[in-house]
Amino acid sequence: MIIIALLITCCYSLTFYLHESKQRCFLDEYPSNTLVIGTHQLLDKPISSTGGVELTVQDPDGNILLTKQTGIEEGKFTFTTKKQGKHQVCLKLSQRVQWEKDKKQPLYFLRVKQGDNMENTRAAKESQISGLKQKIIQLQKTEGDFIKLQELNRENEDKLSLENIKINDRVFKATLIQIIVILMAGAFQIWSLRKFFEKKLYY
Description:
Elements: E1 2-5, E2 11-17, E3 24-30, E4 34-42, E5 48-49, E6 52-58, E7 64-71, E8 74-80, E9 85-93, E10 97-98, E11 107-117, H1 118-202
Parallel strand pairs: 1-3
Antiparallel strand pairs: 2-11, 3-9, 4-8, 4-11, 5-10, 6-7, 6-9
Protein backbone atom coordinates (compact mmCIF):
# COMPACT_ATOMS: atom_id res chain seq x y z
CA MET A 1 0.00 0.00 0.00
CA ILE A 2 1.39 3.39 -0.96
CA ILE A 3 0.27 6.36 1.15
CA ILE A 4 0.76 9.92 -0.06
CA ALA A 5 0.40 12.69 2.50
CA LEU A 6 -1.13 15.91 1.24
CA LEU A 7 -1.02 19.41 2.70
CA ILE A 8 -4.12 20.94 4.26
CA THR A 9 -6.05 22.52 1.44
CA CYS A 10 -9.67 23.26 0.69
CA CYS A 11 -9.31 21.66 -2.73
CA TYR A 12 -6.71 19.52 -4.48
CA SER A 13 -6.37 17.39 -7.60
CA LEU A 14 -3.72 14.92 -8.78
CA THR A 15 -3.05 12.16 -11.26
CA PHE A 16 -1.75 8.70 -10.34
CA TYR A 17 -1.39 5.17 -11.65
CA LEU A 18 -3.73 2.54 -10.19
CA HIS A 19 -2.36 -1.02 -10.26
CA GLU A 20 -4.83 -3.88 -10.45
CA SER A 21 -3.37 -5.73 -7.45
CA LYS A 22 -2.72 -2.71 -5.21
CA GLN A 23 -4.78 0.05 -3.73
CA ARG A 24 -3.67 3.67 -3.64
CA CYS A 25 -4.36 5.73 -0.55
CA PHE A 26 -4.15 9.46 0.01
CA LEU A 27 -4.12 11.40 3.27
CA ASP A 28 -5.54 14.84 3.82
CA GLU A 29 -6.45 16.75 6.95
CA TYR A 30 -9.95 18.15 7.40
CA PRO A 31 -11.75 19.92 10.24
CA SER A 32 -14.65 18.23 11.99
CA ASN A 33 -18.21 18.28 10.66
CA THR A 34 -17.08 19.18 7.15
CA LEU A 35 -18.52 17.97 3.87
CA VAL A 36 -15.92 16.53 1.48
CA ILE A 37 -16.69 15.93 -2.21
CA GLY A 38 -14.47 13.85 -4.46
CA THR A 39 -14.43 12.71 -8.09
CA HIS A 40 -12.16 10.38 -10.01
CA GLN A 41 -11.78 9.94 -13.74
CA LEU A 42 -9.91 7.40 -15.83
CA LEU A 43 -7.58 9.01 -18.34
CA ASP A 44 -6.76 5.71 -20.13
CA LYS A 45 -9.67 3.98 -21.85
CA PRO A 46 -9.89 0.20 -21.29
CA ILE A 47 -10.59 -2.33 -24.05
CA SER A 48 -12.99 -4.28 -21.88
CA SER A 49 -14.03 -4.23 -18.23
CA THR A 50 -16.70 -5.76 -16.00
CA GLY A 51 -15.53 -4.25 -12.74
CA GLY A 52 -15.20 -0.88 -11.11
CA VAL A 53 -13.29 1.03 -8.49
CA GLU A 54 -13.59 0.13 -4.81
CA LEU A 55 -13.40 3.30 -2.73
CA THR A 56 -12.88 3.45 1.03
CA VAL A 57 -12.65 6.45 3.37
CA GLN A 58 -11.29 6.19 6.91
CA ASP A 59 -11.22 8.77 9.70
CA PRO A 60 -8.13 9.59 11.84
CA ASP A 61 -8.98 6.68 14.19
CA GLY A 62 -9.18 4.17 11.35
CA ASN A 63 -12.98 3.97 11.40
CA ILE A 64 -14.57 3.51 7.99
CA LEU A 65 -16.71 6.49 6.98
CA LEU A 66 -17.52 5.31 3.47
CA THR A 67 -17.24 2.22 1.30
CA LYS A 68 -18.45 2.48 -2.26
CA GLN A 69 -17.96 0.93 -5.67
CA THR A 70 -17.96 3.40 -8.52
CA GLY A 71 -17.61 3.10 -12.27
CA ILE A 72 -14.19 2.30 -13.59
CA GLU A 73 -14.10 5.28 -15.94
CA GLU A 74 -15.46 7.90 -13.56
CA GLY A 75 -17.15 8.19 -10.19
CA LYS A 76 -18.15 10.56 -7.42
CA PHE A 77 -18.16 10.25 -3.64
CA THR A 78 -19.04 12.42 -0.65
CA PHE A 79 -18.57 12.06 3.09
CA THR A 80 -18.85 14.19 6.21
CA THR A 81 -16.00 14.25 8.72
CA LYS A 82 -16.82 13.52 12.35
CA LYS A 83 -13.58 14.76 13.91
CA GLN A 84 -10.60 16.84 12.91
CA GLY A 85 -7.54 15.08 11.59
CA LYS A 86 -6.04 13.24 8.64
CA HIS A 87 -8.51 11.20 6.63
CA GLN A 88 -7.51 8.43 4.27
CA VAL A 89 -9.08 7.91 0.84
CA CYS A 90 -8.20 4.59 -0.84
CA LEU A 91 -8.98 3.37 -4.38
CA LYS A 92 -8.58 -0.13 -5.83
CA LEU A 93 -9.69 -1.87 -9.04
CA SER A 94 -12.34 -4.41 -8.13
CA GLN A 95 -11.76 -6.78 -11.10
CA ARG A 96 -9.25 -7.42 -13.81
CA VAL A 97 -9.41 -4.95 -16.68
CA GLN A 98 -7.97 -5.40 -20.17
CA TRP A 99 -5.97 -2.41 -21.36
CA GLU A 100 -4.46 -1.45 -24.66
CA LYS A 101 -0.99 -2.91 -25.27
CA ASP A 102 -1.31 -4.96 -22.07
CA LYS A 103 -1.06 -1.83 -19.92
CA LYS A 104 -1.12 -2.74 -16.19
CA GLN A 105 -1.24 0.70 -14.58
CA PRO A 106 -4.01 2.96 -15.89
CA LEU A 107 -3.71 6.68 -15.23
CA TYR A 108 -6.37 8.23 -13.01
CA PHE A 109 -7.31 11.80 -12.16
CA LEU A 110 -8.57 12.52 -8.62
CA ARG A 111 -10.11 15.75 -7.37
CA VAL A 112 -11.17 16.33 -3.75
CA LYS A 113 -12.91 19.47 -2.57
CA GLN A 114 -13.59 20.55 0.97
CA GLY A 115 -17.11 21.91 1.34
CA ASP A 116 -18.74 24.01 4.02
CA ASN A 117 -18.40 23.29 7.69
CA MET A 118 -21.70 21.81 8.87
CA GLU A 119 -21.61 23.64 12.19
CA ASN A 120 -20.99 26.97 10.45
CA THR A 121 -23.73 26.19 7.94
CA ARG A 122 -26.08 25.23 10.74
CA ALA A 123 -25.14 28.35 12.68
CA ALA A 124 -25.72 30.48 9.56
CA LYS A 125 -29.13 28.86 9.01
CA GLU A 126 -30.01 29.35 12.67
CA SER A 127 -28.89 32.98 12.37
CA GLN A 128 -31.08 33.43 9.28
CA ILE A 129 -34.00 31.76 11.04
CA SER A 130 -33.40 33.94 14.10
CA GLY A 131 -33.36 37.03 11.88
CA LEU A 132 -36.61 35.94 10.22
CA LYS A 133 -38.16 35.29 13.62
CA GLN A 134 -37.16 38.78 14.75
CA LYS A 135 -38.65 40.28 11.60
CA ILE A 136 -41.85 38.29 12.14
CA ILE A 137 -41.98 39.45 15.77
CA GLN A 138 -41.46 43.05 14.65
CA LEU A 139 -44.20 42.70 12.04
CA GLN A 140 -46.52 41.16 14.62
CA LYS A 141 -45.70 44.00 17.03
CA THR A 142 -46.28 46.58 14.29
CA GLU A 143 -49.56 44.88 13.40
CA GLY A 144 -50.55 44.85 17.08
CA ASP A 145 -49.70 48.54 17.43
CA PHE A 146 -51.70 49.32 14.29
CA ILE A 147 -54.69 47.37 15.59
CA LYS A 148 -54.44 49.15 18.94
CA LEU A 149 -54.26 52.50 17.13
CA GLN A 150 -57.36 51.60 15.11
CA GLU A 151 -59.20 50.60 18.27
CA LEU A 152 -58.13 53.84 19.96
CA ASN A 153 -59.31 55.86 16.95
CA ARG A 154 -62.58 53.96 16.99
CA GLU A 155 -63.02 54.67 20.70
CA ASN A 156 -62.23 58.35 20.13
CA GLU A 157 -64.74 58.46 17.27
CA ASP A 158 -67.37 56.85 19.50
CA LYS A 159 -66.63 59.37 22.24
CA LEU A 160 -66.85 62.25 19.74
CA SER A 161 -70.13 60.88 18.40
CA LEU A 162 -71.55 60.69 21.93
CA GLU A 163 -70.34 64.21 22.67
CA ASN A 164 -71.92 65.48 19.44
CA ILE A 165 -75.19 63.77 20.33
CA LYS A 166 -75.11 65.31 23.80
CA ILE A 167 -74.26 68.76 22.42
CA ASN A 168 -77.03 68.51 19.80
CA ASP A 169 -79.46 67.41 22.51
CA ARG A 170 -78.48 70.35 24.72
CA VAL A 171 -78.78 72.79 21.81
CA PHE A 172 -82.23 71.39 20.97
CA LYS A 173 -83.39 71.69 24.58
CA ALA A 174 -82.01 75.23 24.87
CA THR A 175 -83.68 76.25 21.62
CA LEU A 176 -86.96 74.69 22.73
CA ILE A 177 -86.77 76.54 26.04
CA GLN A 178 -86.05 79.80 24.23
CA ILE A 179 -89.05 79.25 21.95
CA ILE A 180 -91.29 78.51 24.94
CA VAL A 181 -90.04 81.60 26.77
CA ILE A 182 -90.61 83.77 23.68
CA LEU A 183 -94.12 82.37 23.23
CA MET A 184 -94.91 82.92 26.89
CA ALA A 185 -93.52 86.44 26.73
CA GLY A 186 -95.60 87.16 23.62
CA ALA A 187 -98.71 85.74 25.27
CA PHE A 188 -98.05 87.80 28.37
CA GLN A 189 -97.62 90.96 26.30
CA ILE A 190 -100.86 90.25 24.42
CA TRP A 191 -102.65 89.67 27.71
CA SER A 192 -101.20 92.88 29.16
CA LEU A 193 -102.21 94.95 26.12
CA ARG A 194 -105.66 93.47 26.20
CA LYS A 195 -106.10 94.40 29.86
CA PHE A 196 -104.79 97.89 29.13
CA PHE A 197 -107.30 98.52 26.32
CA GLU A 198 -110.15 97.10 28.37
CA LYS A 199 -109.40 99.58 31.15
CA LYS A 200 -109.32 102.40 28.60
CA LEU A 201 -112.80 101.46 27.38
CA TYR A 202 -114.20 101.57 30.85
CA TYR A 203 -112.94 105.09 31.41
